[in-house]
Amino acid sequence: MKQLLSLVAGSAIVAAVLVSCGGGSGSDRETDSTTFESTQRDRTYTEASDSNAATAPLAAETNFINKTVEANYAELGMAKLASEKATGTEVKQIAKMLEDDHTVALNGLQQIAIARSITVPAGETEEAKQDIASLSEKKGKDFDKTWCKEMIGKHEKSIKNLEEMEGQATDPQLKTWIAETLPKIRIHRDKLVECHDKMK
To answer: Cα-flanking dihedrals φ and ψ of residue 124, to 5°?
Structure first.
């Protein structure tokens, strides 16, 4: 009889241990699984958000580089046109300065693009080509005045874009390029305004 009681007591203890070590009921295990999956999803979302936050400035810089390369090609085209067609000595001098400075600026941007493995445009936009073709039909003082006016507008736009990127850029090369280029573009704008005002 005592052996039977001992066997029953032993079985009860084993059952209690099995329940304790079994990790709880099926619903508890499902809750643990759901919590794990939720944690994994949160971690994946956070990592994706961090990745997007890191690549956003790079995308903005790439777009800036591409657009600014096109703008420099356009201004070089306008400068070369003025060197050929302008009648005023001052206009020709400004055109030469623009050609020299924008060549340097363009080369600098292309070097940054190479370092970052960015494929940049090989020329100005079609719209810019049409503007140059339209302006080439003008002659004499009419050409000089119209050229100055259009170049003032282009330089105002360039200054705005450079100032905006100056506060956003993270690439050291690009920040240096902007710091070196922006003062020159402002000088261009000021000389163009001065020259245009003299022709009124």
So the answer is: -75, 170
Domains of the chain: 57-198 (1.20.1260.10)
pLDDT digits (tens, 9 = 90+) for 51-65: 343 455 588 999 999
Q: Compute the average pLDDT of residues 72-83.
A: 96
Indicate the SS3 state at residue 122. Answer: coil
Instruction: Identify the residue whose tokens are 């999803």.
Output: 41
Question: What is each CA distance from 126 to 122, 133, 150, in whole angstroms?
Answer: 12, 11, 17
Asked if 74 and 154 count as a contact pair (C-beta separation under 8 A), the reply is yes
Q: Is the pTM of the predicted complex or chain greater than 0.85? A: no
C-alpha neighbours within 13 Å on the C-beta side of residue 42: 6
185 in Cβ contact with 108 (< 8 Å): no
